[in-house]
Amino acid sequence: MALSVFHHPSLTLPSPPPQPSPPSLRPSPSNSLQFTLPAPRPLLLLLRSSRPNRRHSSLRAGLSSAVDSPPQTSGSQPEKKLILQVRDLTAVIAESKQEILKGVNLTVYEGEVHAVMGKNGSGKSTFAKVLVGHPDYEVTGGSVVFKGQDLLEMEADERSLAGLFMSFQSPVEIPGVSNINFLRMAYNAKREKLGLPELGVFEFYAYLYPKLELVNMKTDFLDRNVNEGFSGGEKKRNEILQLAVLGAELALLDEIDSGLDVDAFQDVAKAVNGLLTPTNSVLLITHYLRLLQFIKPTCIHIMENGKIVKTGDISLAEALEKDGYEAIAKPH
Ligand SMILES: Nc1ncnc2c1ncn2[C@@H]1O[C@H](COP(=O)(O)OP(=O)(O)OP(=O)(O)O)[C@@H](O)[C@H]1O
Ligand SMILES: [Mg+2]
């Protein structure tokens, strides 16, 4: 994940629940690690290296996509705050310089849910990872404005602290760091940014406990190392727990529905819906209509070969489900 929080009352007013169960924290080696990391750095543990992903020095001028996203429904609601504006974004794999994003355009306003669909390998995950500053990619052109700030000039942890969260398609394991310590570090980093005092172990547990209920997760998972040995579904639940704890003004959720059993699917979808407010936004990457029947999207985008080539409403996902990508390749 990368962090931030839906503007959650509990973030600014961390009122403990009336009768929190006592924490069952075991002393673990991860406690010492917790205090050796500089405050916002826990976020970078989730990316594989800490190389910054700032804008590449040789931006290609004048690059633009052949297909712009069509005007979105939000265009007719000018009173809404602009959360994300992506223009002609291009990016390469840092190591090989292979271009993956070839001119992405996307505009998200507050309170909107955008779904991105597209064939395997079309660039959906890369797009989300580039937005959170993943070090595997280098931006070569275009612009990204997040809440009025140039996102591409921000370090990955700054992006998180500014309100961007990503749940990864393949969540990262962090050996040696317990889930609860990780969550507390990340949450306290956020509080520090807001000028709020750190929460101690007991206070944090009181804050955390209702979130566990929200995602229907057992307390046992708190003492285990982050995602280590978690099943696929448990990892997805854990990602949503991170989102519930940290919140986000824009949450990028990459295939949160993949590998979930029926109950877990319901829990995760309900939890995401429960976190939605009129002022936060979600970008959902998914292959399936089913998720979009639970978490209703404002609009749906189809990504193809590193670009958004089509935008529409739920009927786009319905056509896809029925007849596959051939169906939506035709004029709609
Ligand atoms: N770090 C990397 N190293 C090498 N190739 C990469 C890397 N990241 C992305 N790619 C390649 O870029 C293309 C787009 O990958 P991406 O993960 O964004 O696809 P996707 O649309 O999310 O697919 P899926 O639906 O299967 O998750 C793929 O061909 C992938 O192999
Ligand atoms: Mg993907």
Automatic annotation (TrEMBL):
Residues 84-330 form the ABC transporter domain. One of its GO terms (molecular function) is ATP binding. Residues 66-77 have a biased composition (Polar residues). Residues 14-26 have a biased composition (Pro residues). It is an enzyme of class 3 (hydrolase). Residues 1-34, 55-80 are annotated as: Disordered. Its EC number is 3.6.3.23. The keyword Transferase does not apply. This is Putative oligopeptide-transporting ATPase. It comes from Rosa chinensis (China rose).
